[in-house]
Amino acid sequence: MNNQKKKNILVVGDVHGCYNELLELHNKALNENDQIPFQYVILVGDLCNKGPESAKVIRHVRLSSNWFSVRGNHDDGALLATLGGRSRLQKNKYQWVEALSDDDVQFMADLPYTIKIPGDFFGVGEIKFEQNDDTIIVHAGLIPNREIETQEIKTMITIRDLLPRYDEDDKFTHYEYYEKRKGGIIENGCNDTKAICKDNKENDPVPWGTAWNGPFVIFGHDAKRKLQMYDNAIGLDTGAVYGGMLTGLILSSNTERKLVSVKSKEYSAIIGKK
Ligand SMILES: [Mn+2]
Questions:
Q1: Interval 177-195 mean pLDDT
Q2: How far apart are CA 207 and CA 121, in angstroms?
Q3: Could you provide one GO biological process annotation from this protein's UniProt record (predicted)?
Q4: What is the pTM of this model?
């Protein structure tokens, strides 16, 4: 195969304004890829907030014609701030949005919640591709056994854990979005608080990726868990903005996946500001 025509995609974890690390990661990934330019670079969202150069990251992705991103919760927050969310604009952490141009804001408004790489994108061989060979990129995650079209926005940009639910006979029925209340009490979207609390003594939440059975998903949003590698999902948020790593994944076929990462600087002075 002519390598120059080989299709390659670089997927990048949560950047959070770490512009220098983003460029460094892209360079390192190119080296790993024998200097063959990536056909597409796709970011898992949370381009901005917390880190030092949010506006530059947004502009870089916008102006690079083959770079794309899905929408993260921080991208949504920044967009709301630019659109006049006063409570957000009063916070130091959103001061940087004043550097955004109208085109940048339009770009943020247009970010999709998911990007799908079709199963036959890499075009390898004569294999007949099934639906399962698609790759989905989403910021946070998805709830299993639900069509992409019926996933809720809150799920796609904020989920980390799933709560397994059981019927009266202790038979597993389904997974639900799991969230912690302030103070650590469990809430699951149901109004029957007593029943939920009782229930949850037995039902421990699980990382959503452990329960996902395909199609393959690449996500971010979970710096505490760092790199997550499951059978059908990879989590790439390795805490770049917390002095961890910025991680990327080079896709060169449906099964060939190569991780690449760069060490990042510590940006704690900015993180701490409310
Ligand atoms: Mn996030």
A1: 51
A2: 29
A3: polyphosphate catabolic process
A4: 0.88
